[in-house]
TrEMBL record:
Name of a matching Pfam family: GvpO
GO-annotated biological processes: gas vesicle organization
Protein name: Gas vesicle protein
InterPro entries named in the record: Gas-vesicle_GvpO
Amino acid sequence: MDGIMATTESTEGKRGPQRIGAPAAMRHAAGQLAQLLGCEPGAVSALKRTDEGWSADVEVVEIERVPDTASVMASYRVKLDEHGELLEYERIRRYARGQIDR
């Protein structure tokens, strides 16, 4: 995702990257993970601010099946810096699309 950082004018007149807010963090987490995995993200199921920036849980379809309730889903934890750049990601869970948490 080129050009995802915004710039602001500081009190000294220098331009620098701006911290992103929650809506932008959600878009950046889903978009950058999709680029790395080559698949479309389903949803961002969790988002929280961290000392480094943001942590988001992103749901993706890993294996498409028919019917779609048999598709294999995965939940990835994505960590972004304060400007929205991906720092790391890891798969934290795999499950059938039709599965309900208890």
